[in-house]
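Below is how a single chain appears once it has passed through the pipeline. First comes the sequence as given, then the structure the pipeline wrote out for it. We keep one example in the README because the format questions we get most often are answered faster by looking than by reading.
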Amino acid sequence: MSGHSKWHSIKHKKGKEDARRGKLFGKLSQKIMVAAREGGGNPDSNTALASAIETARGYSMPMDNIKRAIKKGTGELAGGQLDQMSFEGYGAGGVAVLVEVVTDNRNRASSEVRYVFNKAGGHLGEAGSVAWVFEKKGIFLIEKSPEHNEDELLNIALEAGADDLKGEGDYWEIVCEVEQFRNVREKLAEAGIEPESSELTMLPKNTVPLGKRDARSMLRLIEALEELDDVHDVYANFDIPDDILQEEASLS
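Resulting structure:
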């Protein structure tokens, strides 16, 4: 799954750039709102909210924005009336694609997602057609540095109950079960380690290897979906060689 994990770190860097341009905060606020609406406004008892807040903080979103989004989600402020939807489909090479949407207009969101799939040569599937390919996990990206070596991080990860630690480019990546997300975060904090990002995400159980042509088509589909205002997250089970990923990332 190295190619898929590599893309995760590339997306994080792109997200940092989008945040600096002010493009990301609206989506991050909506994610916080939905998490607060569904599980309450206390991140200590709401793992999804804790993850959404950590993700927002990782992109330097101001705390005032975060608090306002929580209050909208819990109903303390107006403006939290949003629907959460998911779409399942296929891209180049039969790659499974799961799209998560937060919207105030279900019809608009549906038509826009369908249009992007069709334009990119993919197609939508029935509910449940690809969701089984993915499982929810916690992921922490920690920038590689002389201060924290692999053995130290591995010991922390295992003590906290994480599943795995591996190197991906400029980052160490820790993967854990949702139930261990808070524990891993706390253990890292106790060791004085601040992750570049920490979030709940959907990881594929299996991957589909792609060559250059299908890889380019697949990444264009993902980018087009992510450009839609209502789309929050896009997950896919591709495996693209690192050299092709780097080349495509430099062109996007």
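The first strand starts at residue 83 and ends at 90.

See the next section for the split statistics.
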